[in-house]
Structure formats: structure tokens, C-alpha cells
Amino acid sequence: MTRQTHRLNGAGSRLDRSKPISFTFDGKRYSGYEGDTLASALLANGVRLVARSFKYHRPRGIFTCDPHEPSALVQLRSGARQEPNIPATMVELYDGLEATSQNRWPSLRYDLLSVNQLFSPFFAAGFYYKTFKWPAKFWTNLYEPVIRRAAGMGRLSGGIDPDTYEKIHHHCDILVIGGGGAGISAARAAAQSGARVTLVEEHARLGGFDSTGLEQDIAELEALENVRILPRTMVFGWYDNNTFGAVEQVSDHLPVPAAHQPRQRMWKIVAPQVILATGAHERSLVFGNNDRPGVMLASAAERYLRDYGVRTGSRAVIFTTNDSTTGLVKALGAAGVTVAAVADARNGDEIETVHGRTTVTGVTLRQKDGSRRTVDCDTVCVSGGWNPAVQLLAQRGQKPHWSENLQAFLPQEMAGADFLCTGSLVGLEAHEDCQTHGRIAGEAAGKRFAAPDSASLADYHNYLEASEQRAAKFAYFESSTGKSKKFIDLQHDVTAGDVSLATREGYRSVEHVKRYTTLGMATDQGKTSNIHGIAAMSKALDKPMSQVGTTGFRPPYRPVSLGALAGRSRGKHWRPILRTPLHGWVEDKGGVFIESGLWHRSQYFPKPGETMSQAISREVQAVRSAVGFCDVSTLGKIDLQGPDAAAFLDRVYSNGFAKLPVGKSRYGLMLREDGIVMDDGTVSRLAEDHYFITTTSAESDSVISHLEYCHQVLWPELDVVFADAGEDWAGIALAGPRARDVLARIAPEMDVSNAALPFLAARECTVLDGVPARLFRISFSGELAYEIYVPSPYGRPLAEALEREGAEFGITPYGVEALDVLRIEKGHVSSELNKFTTAADLGLGMLMSAKKDFIGRALSSRPGLTDPDREVVVGLKPLDPSHSFRQGAHITASGAPLAPENDDGYITSAAWSPTMESCIAIALVRRGRERLGEVVEIIDPLHGEDPVPATIVSHHFYDPENTRVRS
Amino acid sequence: MRIPCPLCGDRPLEEFIYRGDATLTRPAADAPMGAWVDYVYLRDNPKGPHREHWRHAQGCGGWLVVDRNTVTHEITQAIQARPGGEVQR
Ligand SMILES: [Zn+2]
To answer: Quick one: which of A360, A489, A708, B14 is 20 to 30 A from A163 by CA?
Structure first.
């Protein structure tokens, strides 16, 4: 364990010295205190070199005290919890923390890939665009492996994240973003109105850059009952209608989350009023080797001293353009750090270059008269002024506006109908200014809450105007001389030379230069650096900063973990599961489930030792020779009533329903308005003004939405109401030559004879012991069959009764695989309704009524849909019954060369038919109905299969005369 | 984005499905093909105010006529599409 050589005695307002903490970095053990960040603890231990840079593998240290740290990115934790690219500055230290440096090989100090620096001409602006043009094979053989290794960041473990993430919705009256001095004042003032106020703060504690003197305000704020404070929470996006996305780092400061606590929590916050107090980011300056470990933002050095009791060195040089460093000079002196020089750009002084390789050893200063001198030092503190954190406002489409006076991009609009801005975001500097204006903003928001439209913003704007007059800033961004690399974007290794090269190569727009150089495109999104890219462009193009402008800002403000975005929707919870009322029964029977949309449907019911195909064939044969039953509860069900119900059905189905008698069912075809088939199903008339509709399982939601549209928007004059009855009824298909015998047993009071209950009969009846049921003599299999619907809770008892009463007739449960084989044998279309086919394509042209208007009628006659060349439904049978083919295989004329223009269609359904003892298929084939009997080739190059010769036949393979369904 | 459903109140975007232009009228049965093509396929793509159909699918199921600015997403009015159901928020 090393000694904390750089820790000052007694200092450090955030530390709890009674709680020492042990942690490791690159396997070496160090100590810190509770309250430390990983960055402050490393600095306290004298560790400066913590990372290698992205492109050139240059040594990098800790540059900021903020979450947008560009340099000190580390890999945190180990095993499945390993997280790459985490700024050491935002990691709250906990006992046992493990961190490793990344992007170095074999070690941080001896990184062999730092030779990349020698090849830096190849990595200059536009590197990606210039390099990756050459032969395609270079991509996989050279670029990918080499660049992945050389220019990368940290690594994921590849393991499954063991932690949980959750989502929460939150509504408040006034949202305050940012818990610095301005935000605290704003929240307190806003709360006076009685509004529900939520204050969101990125850091663990309120107080901003300097919480000195705010202790009392924070305590009073925390005591207010109508104020909710969310610390460790970062607002990453501002969306329409004042909807905000935020991530709370619930457990990132702990070794592992506490029991039942998530690692992170995603907040979706809706607030009619928001006060932005997002603060400002200190910016760097551009000079030679400004990336060396030991070069640091001045405010960061000050905060490490004051909050963490850490002096980053013993001899410091300060390079500044403004007055914000005066406090630092005093603090350094008090801590016993020698201030070797202050280079104030306002006096014409600047740092030309930094000396030292893995740490700062000195600087060359260039004075106003051009003279140079070398100063020994181990720390360089830089302040290039402050960038207001306008990112959230810019996400809303505001173009930040350049203030010549403040030398900064400010919000274009300081207030809107649903937002106010305060603090250093609007260019305020002094604590008192931030707090006073924060209070004014909070009061204004409170007045808006109490009485919208009444609040005057005169005080609010006057205060801002007055303060902008006060604060004139000096324009300075980049040292004027020097040959060493001058970095603009530390995280992406973009230099002043790169920006200048891009402008010489003709790039003029800030958006293009950004993409060409990758400036500001790293995880820190250029918060310390973008301004310097804009300044460099301004200089190179001789255009004012205001005309160069900023790039667009999009969410997220700061990186958001995928875990937080996914929340609980992962693994088996990644989407909801729909189970039918028979689910438990199928489980008990050992049925296998298949996912179909959100449904888990019974696929087949294997007996011991049976393969899947054996089970399916057995189930099919049982239906063909005896009787079977199948869960069809997933079908959409709609209950439709009203005096105009028949008229309504006539308009939404292509075939007619007005003449459907009570007690009868009819197949129905529904089109889209463009003439393409939308769905099919059955319509049964239970009473003069009462219908029961079924839809396909997949389309039930869209059919209901469509019917609602037709009813509410197109024909509101029709007196009809309908309800989605999908979950109300369990449905079972009972099919096979012995189906009537079984039905007689479960509905003993009903006359089930063919005369009393003919094909397509529809009845309301009772089954079992008085269970109300709806019974339809409908067949999808081609056998004598019924669909029986009972209220959902009776689904399982009905299945059990069928099994029991049907035993002597050889009843067999069957799943959707057998269901599909049966319907393919019979030639019923199903997967052929693929959103490309018309009624005529499907062989259902007779269902296009000529006697009425209906949805899709008009456009069905457009030329494209009546082209005789269209692909239409036919059947296919291989010449050799031992051959097979699959869904998706294509069809060509026999002997035609394999070419797209010879594609004559494709197979939409294929199955092994135990009844035909052959593979059979339904296909969409060009001019198919004219080609019955033709031998074609089935080609499946995707599966690498040889062409299979097959004959085009009618797709009604089984009982084409329809005698069995009527028997 | 949030839509003020006249029946359910202010609700988030995820509960709604979008359909499109609410100013179109379904042509008469005997209208020429051109009128049908216009109705089904041809749409303006205005920058600014737009009257459109949304369905509160995860709520009341109602079809709404919503006046939305396609630039700002500001919603100035949302009413029920069904005549007689023009409850407004
Ligand atoms: Zn609603």
C-alpha cells in the first residue's frame, strides 16, 4: 500500500477521514477516504499517468474534476460487472474498488502502440475517409483487426450483467435541472408557491463547483416536503412537451447494489415548467503538448485542493484568460504549492509548449515581447473561460448564440413558455448573482404554476442584461507559436493542425469538420474542446465565431448505459408473453410451446420417444381418421352488435353479409383500401343484430384498430358497437370424422345431427354442465369440425372434458404444426396473406362482391393488381415423393437459367403430408393457374440445395369436392 | 411527446398510434380512379400545422383528430374524430 503523498493534512471538505478505503489500480493497492473519487484518490497517491490516448497512445492524466473528463477513462470492476470507458472523475470510491487502465499494451508505462505517434501523418484529419477506400478485402484482413487493437477503448466482459435496472415515471409541477447555487435558490423559491418541485443533480451532493456557504440553504431545501431531490441523476434528454429522460446511478458508488436495489434507474419526468441551472464547463487552452499528465483545468485543481485535500504537485504554472483563477492562486499558496508563474493571456503571455513525457517537468513561456523562458514545474493549471452548458436547450432546436462580450455560446432564448434558465448557464459568474437570479427564476416559475400567463419576467431579463454588461471577456483560444502537437480534442486526439488541414482541404461547415476530424465525437462530446475547434475554424476561415456556430446537439447529454435503456425488458422479460386459457393444461400434457407473436402456442404433443415430425404426423392422422382437438384461443374475437351491423360488415368485408341468416357462419375476407388482402376470418350471425367475428391471431389488434377507424371516422352514422372479446373466450377446434360423437357427449342437450347442425351452423348453447358456449361448425382442416368457444375460465375444463369423453373415439390433442399441415393439405390460405396478395391471387376472387361498395373495392381494379402475369396460389408436388422443399424456395421454369428474370414465384407454405405421403407446398406462381400440370424446378440456393423437379397442381390437395366437411 | 386525449387526459406518445392526414374524405363509390389514388397514396408533407389522425390504442381506443405542428410538435387541439364526440381539452 502506497502512502497518500499528495494529501494535505486536515483539508478536504468532502472527505470522511475516519473512513479509510482501499482500492486497486492496475493491480496495485492504494488507499483513499470515503468521499474521494477514483481520480482524487489516484492524485492523492501521486498517480498521474492513468490512460493512453485513443489514436496516438499518448500518456494521459486526469484533466478535470467532472463527468465529461476526456482523458482519465478507466475500466471499472471485473468479471461480469466490468465496465469500460468510465471517467475516473465520476467514480465514487468504495472499499475494494478495482480499476484498470485501458487502451495500452503491454502496460500503461511501456505502451508499445505509442509508436502510433510516429505515424501520426497517417492518422491526421480525414484518416477514416482517406484510408478506408482501398480493396474491400483490406477491411476484414487489415483495417478491422489492426485498428480495433490500436485505436480502441475499454472492453466489455462478454458476461451477462448480473445487476438489474428499472424505469420510473415521475410527474412534478416544476423541474429544476442542476443543484448548484442557482438551482438550489431556484428550487427553494419555486417551492414557496406550493408547487411540487423536483431538483435533479448529476453529482452525489448539491452545491455545484463550490458548496462553501451553501450548507444552510441545502439543509433548508432538503427539509421542504414539496421538494424532491434526485442526486446522482443526470438529465440526458429534453423531449417534446417537457418530457425529460434522466438516469439515476442508484448503486454505482457501491461495490454491488444492495438487496432488491437496481444499479441504475431510468426516470421519465414530465414537468409543465422547467428551470435549467445546468451550469458551465471550464474550457481548456490550445498549446504545445497540452495533453501531458499534470496539465489540468484550473477549477479542477482548485476543487481537488478544497474538496479532497489533494495537491496535484508542488510547483504550478497557471495559464489563464480570466479572473476565475485568482482563488486558485491563493489556495495553492495556502497548500504550500509554489506558483512558479502565471501566464495571463490578457497580458500577452502564453505557454508555448509543455516539457516532459509521462508527466509535466516544465513549460516554455512566451512573453508579450516575444521573449521565451523555461520554467520548471510539475503542474499546469489552465483556464480558457467557461462554456455555458447549453446542450439540453440545443436539443430542443435552439441554436446557441455567440456573445462577443462573454466570449461564449449562450442560450438563444433565455426563457420560453415552459422553461427558464439561470446560473452560469446564462453567463452569470459570482455566487451572489447566481443565487439572486436563481431566486428570481424560481419565483417566476412559482407564479406561473399558481396562475399561468400572469408572471412577468421583467426582473428576470433585467438582471441578465445588467450582468452581461458587467462581464467583458478576453478572446483567446490558442497559443500563437510552437511546433509540438496542440490538442483540441483530448479524447479523440484531434489537434489544431487537423482542423486547419480540414479547412485547407475545403471543409467549411462546422458539421462537416466535426465528422471529418471526429472532433467532439467522443464520449465527452467535446465539452471542454468543441469551442476550440470552432475558434480554429474561425481563424482559418477568417469568419467570426457567430458565423461558424456550433454543431447540433442530440440526446444523450452524457453516455447512458444500455442496461438503463433496457430496464427490466431483458431475458425472458424482454417482451410480454401471452398465454391462452389452456396454457397450464398444455404444460401438464407435456406439450411443446412455440412463440408466435407474443403468444406461446402449443406446437405439438410428443409421446415418449417420439420425434417432432413423428408426433406431428400422428396428430394429423388422428384428425383424418378419428378425431382431434386444438387450442385456437389465440384467434381474434370481436362481438359486434347494432341495427346497422350487417351494413357495417358489408362495407368492411369484400363479400356480402346482409343476407347471412341468423344461425349461420361465413368465411370473410377483409381488404385494405389499396386492394391488398388485410385479413380473413369467420363471421357468425347469432341474432338479427348480433355477430361474432374471428380474425387471424396475428392481425387481431390491427383489425380492431381498422374497424374502429371505419366506425368512428368513416361511417359514424352507422348504429353499431363492438368490443374486443379476444380474452373473454377460450376456443377449441374439434375436428375429425368422429367429432360429432364427441360433441354429442359434451353437449348432451343439443341435437348435433347433420340436419339439425349442418356445415356452417352457428349456435349459442351450453356445454358440460351448463357452461354457456358459442358453437360454430367451421372447418380449417377439411374434416367434419366445430369451433367451440367458452368463457376463458372454462377453457381448461372443456379441454379435460373433450379428452375424457373423446377417449373411446381415439381423441388426440394437436398443436399448431399439425393444424398447419391439415390446412395445407386442404389448401386453405394462411401465410399466403402476406400483404402482397389480392383476393384473386389467393384464388378467392369470387369473394369480391360486385353488388356493393367496400373497403378496397375501387383500387382492386387498378392495373397492377389485375395483371395476368401476377403470381397466384397453386400447389406443388415433387416428382419424386422422397424429395422435399421448404418455405421461401423459388420456382423457375424447367431448364431456365438461374437468373432473377426467370424467377416465377416462391413457396409460401410447405409440409410433409402424411395423408399424401409426400412433401406438398402452396406457392405463389406467375400465371400459376394456367400452368397446372407443368413441371417446374424448385430452387433454394440460400440453403445450398439442388433443384427439385415438381409439378404444379391445384392447392386443394385433400378432398377437393368438400364432401368431408359436410358429412 | 404528449397528446391530450379528450377522454383520458394528457397521455404519453407511446400509448398512441399514428395514421396520418385527417382532412381526407373517402371518395364516393363511383368516384374516378384518380380520386381513389389521391385518397390512398398522395400526401402533402407540410412544414408547420398539420391535422392528423391518431388512435389512443393503449387507452380508450378512440380515434382522435389532432392539430400538430410538424416543426415544434406543439399540439393545439385534440378532439374525438366521431361527430358528436367533440369533447375538447
Ligand atoms: Zn383516450
So the answer is: B14
- The CA-to-CA distance between both ends of chain A, in Å, stands at 90
CB A10 within 8 A of CB A309: yes
Task: Kindly report, residue by residue over A659-704, the tens digit of the pLDDT.
Answer: 999 999 999 999 999 999 999 999 999 999 999 999 999 999 999 9
CA B3–ligand 1 middle distance (angstroms): 9
**Is A857 an 8 Å CB contact of chain B?**
yes
Between helices A612-625 and A816-826, what is the axis angle to 10°? Answer: 60
Determine contact: B36 vs chain A, CB below 8 A.
yes
Measure CB to CB from residue B40 to each of A270, A673, A713 and give the nearest one.
A673
HEC assignment per residue over A245-286: EEEECCCCCCCCCCCCCCCEEEEEEECCEEEECCCEEECCCE
Give the DSSP letter of residue A161. P
Of A241, A708, A713, which has the smallest distance from its Cβ to B2's Cβ?
A: A241
Nearest Cα residue in chain B from A169: B12
ipTM of the complex: 0.96
Residues contacting residue A833 through CB under 8 Å, at least 6 positions apart? A677, A678, A679, A680, A696, A842
Q: How many alpha carbons fall within 13 Å on the CB side of residue A439? A: 7
Please provide residue A218's backbone torsions phi and psi, each rounded to the nearest 5 degrees. -65, -45
Which set of grid coordinates corresponds to residue A837?
396478395
A725 touches chain B (CB under 8 A): no
The b-or-e profile of A395-416 (16+ CB within 10 A means b, else e) is: bbeeebbbbeebbbbbbeebbe
Between strands A264-270 and A165-171, the pairing is parallel
Name the CA radius of gyration of chain B, rounded.
14
Comparing CB atoms, the residue among B13, B19, B40 nearest residue A859 is B40
Q: Spell out a b/e string for A826-836, using b for 16 or more CB atoms within 10 Å of the CB, else e.
A: bbbbbebbeee
A171 touches chain B (CB under 8 A): no
Residues 94-113 of A with CB under 8 A from B: none
Q: Side chain identity at A625, as an amino acid letter?
A: S
Nearest C-alpha neighbor of A631 from the set A663, A577, A587, A693: A587
Q: Estimate to the nearest angstrom the gap between the alpha carbon of A231 and the chain centroid.
A: 24
Residue A48: left (phi > 0), alpha (psi -120 to 50), or beta?
A: alpha
Question: What single string gives the DSSP state of each residue in B21-60?
Answer: ESS--PPPTT--HHHHHHHHH-----SSEEEEEEE-TTTT
Secondary structure of residue A948 in the 3-state scheme: strand
Grid coordinates given for A309: 485535500
CA of A520 to the centre of ligand 1 (A): 43
Q: CB–CB of A295/A383 below 8 Å?
A: no
User: Grid coordinates representing B70?
Assistant: 410538424
Cα of B16 to ligand 1 centre, how many Å?
9
Q: What is the pLDDT of residues A73-107, one digit of tens each?
A: 999 999 999 999 999 999 999 999 999 998 766 67
Ligand 1 centre and the CA of B55: distance in Å? 8
pLDDT tens digits, residue range A168-197?
A: 999 999 999 999 999 999 999 999 999 999
Strand partners, A165: A264
Set of cell numbers at residue B15: 400509448
Distance of alpha carbon A40 from alpha carbon A92, whole angstroms: 10
Residues in chain B: 89
Kindly give, in sequence order, each residue whose CB lies less than 8 Å from that of residue A220, ignoring residues fewer than 6 positions away. Answer: A188
Closest to A47 measured CA to CA, from A37, A35, A56: A37
Contacts of B57 in chain A (CB under 8 A): 701, 705
**Measured distance CA(A403)–CA(B13) in Å, rounded:** 37
Going from the Cα of B4 to the center of ligand 1, the distance in angstroms, rounded, reads: 8
